[in-house]
Every structure is written in C-alpha cells, then in structure tokens.
Amino acid sequence: MAHNIVSRMIDKLKSNGWVALSPLLVFLGVYLISSILAQDFYKVPTSAAFLIASAYAVLVSKEKTIEKNIEIFSSGAGNKNVLLMLWIFILAGAFAETAEQIGAIDATVAVTLAILPSEMLFAGLFIASCFISMAVGTSVGTIVALVPVAAGIATESGLDVGYVTAIVAGGAFFGDNLSFISDTTVAATKTQGCSMADKFKVNFRIVFPAAILVCIVYLVQGYGTVIPVVEGGVDWIKLFPYLVVVVMALCGVNVLVVLALGIVLNAIIGFSTGAFNWVDWLGGIGSGIAGMGDLIIVTILSGGMLAMISYNGGIDFLMKKLTRRINGKRGAELSIGALVSLANVCTANNTIAILTIGPIAKDIAAKFHLDSRKVASILDTFSCMAQGLLPYGAQMLMASGLSGVSALAIIQHLYYPMTIGLFAFLAIVFRFPKKYS
Fold first, then answer.
1. Is residue 243 within 8 Å of 149, Cβ to Cβ?
2. Considering only Cβ atoms within 10 Å of each terminal Cβ, which end of the chain, N or C, has fewer?
3. Model confidence over 291-323: pLDDT tens digits?
4. Does the reported pTM lie above 0.85?
C-alpha cells in the first residue's frame, strides 16, 4: 500500500511542468555556478554540464523504463536537424584547417587590412556580415565563411578575438532575421499566413534602425584603432577557396556542397604550391574535425536533452503559463515574444522555436485581432535575439570553434541581437509601426 502511494506521488511529481523544465535549469546551474566558483568561465566545459543535465533528464522523465527514456533521448540526439548541424560542423572544421594550411586565412587577412581604413575595420566587417547573411539567408553559413577571416584579422592586429568574432556573428543574424530565403522567415510567414514581402516591410522598419545604431557604435569604437601596414604583395591564388565559398553561398548553393568544394579546392592549391602533401592534407582534415569534437558532443547532448523536455511537456507548460493572463494587444504581442524566446532557449534552434510557437501565436493573434505581419516579425526577431545569446546555440558553438575562444567571450560583445530584441520590445510598447499595430 505504502509502495503504491509513493509510486503515485513520484509519477505525479514527474508529470509536473517545472520538473519537465528542470533539466535546463540543472544545465544552467551546473555551468554558471561552477564557473563562478572557479572564477573563470573558460574552465568549465559546456559538454560536461550538458552530460550531467542529460543524465538528469533521463532519470526524471515520466516514462517508467530507462530503456524508453534512452530511446526518446536518442531520437532527439539523432534528429535530422541535429545531424545536419553535425555535418556542417565536420565539413567546416575540415575546410577551416586545410584553408589555414595553404595560407588562405593569412592572404585574406592581408587583403582586408590593406583595403579597409583602420577606423572602418569594425563597421566594415559588420556590414559585410549583414550583406552576406542577407544574400545567403543563413547565419551559420555566414559565420563559417567570415569568422576564420575575422579571427585572423584580430590575431594579426592584436585585437580582442572574441570582440571581432562577435561583430561577424552579430551581422550574421541580420540576414537570418530578414532574408527572403532564411528558414526563420519561411517558418514565421507560413505559420501566420502572410507574404514574405509584407513581413519584410514590418520587420525592416523595426530592425534596420538597430543595425544603423550598431554600425555607428562600431565606427565610434573603431576610431583610433591602429592596424598593421601590409608589406609585400598578396598571394591571390590562396584567396580563391574563400572567394568561391562566399560567391557560391551568395548564389544559394547548399552549405554542405560549398564546404565540400572548398576542401577540394584547398587540396588542389595545397598540392600545386607544395603547401602540403597527401598525408598532410588528410592530417589537416582530421585535425579540423577533431577541433569540432566538443561542438559535436554538445549538439548531440543538447538535442537529446531538449527532446526529453519537450516530450515531458515542458514547452507546453511554459506556453500555458505565459498565455493565461494576456490582457490587450500589447500583452498579446509581448506574450508571443516571450513564448518564442523561451521555446528557443529550450530547443536551441530558432526555426524549430517558431514552428513550435507559430500555431499558438496565430490563435492569440485571432483572439486579440493582431496583424499577422507584425506577429510574424515578432516571432522571427525575438527568436533571433534569443538564439544569438545562447552559448549552446549552433551559431555560437560554430563561432567559438572557428575562432578558438569561449562562446561567452563572444556573447558579451554581441551587440546586434541584443539591440534588435530591445527595438522589437519598444515596437510593441509604442505600437510601431502604427500601420501594422
């Protein structure tokens, strides 16, 4: 009898929404508290914190058998979106390492330092990142193409690598949020039933002023910056792989195809110039993949853990909590922004967060007579803001892996995602743009 009562109490506890969300709190607690105690955020591996949180998630799941819980966890870890990220990480690591072997990064850095005036370096990198991300529609692809160059410039110039990497990563979210071919734009407009062009008109009015403000900040911070004078000529052939990667990305070619071709081009140039032989090239590929090992592990663990949270009702619980006391249009729009942000924290994927919250947002919009174009903009902007500030998000993991600095060293300088979040909040509070509010 006593055993049955205890068993029912445990089952009731496991079905509690806060318990379903608790693995995320465990991860944040282990990572943040351990880092504070160590007085160093670089000492605590993100993968270790995720492993502990993942084990906890399996233990507190509402399913009774460990086998079933592991099956759920594994399905999340093996999700097609997770596997796609892993392939990108693997190829990006191999491309970056082999490009460095042939001297492509040094050559690109030399050209950039020769072309850009010192005071325009920061703003120039930000504008380039905004333009490329707008053209390719993916923040990850932009980060893959530009972060190695930005990190090389920082190293060559004696600048803070985390700061310069953050400039590129921030600009990458410009296109992720606005581009017509961005998956977040597609998800936001499809779930709300509005056209991409109309969503763009609203979205642009909200975030373009934010981009201008951030660009001005970079101009001010770049004032007085001294970068080294480039001596000698530039070996233009070594720039070819990067140029091909950027051009193909701008043409909308699949990022996996782009990276694979880049690796092949690195091999051709490396063999022809004597930069390496066959064994060295294979060694470079292996080193590049190994350098992405921590990112790969974190992506797998986070995918599994977040699947457990979703399965146990954690995201649904958050939705109900946030929507039960909505009052008025401002409250409705703010609740949609909060919902998609929290879903993003739980899924570490802004597209999935939009697809998850989209139907609920549409219902809220119908109930409170919200403009679908404004709602689509809110979904996209708040999700990009949240995604940009996640140390375990794909963009920060990729930027961290390619630059060789901690994700937190990048996030603290990530002005653009923070600014678009602020501007989106102000647009809701002050009912802007009025035509769509």
1. no
2. N
3. 888 878 888 998 898 889 889 988 778 667 767
4. no
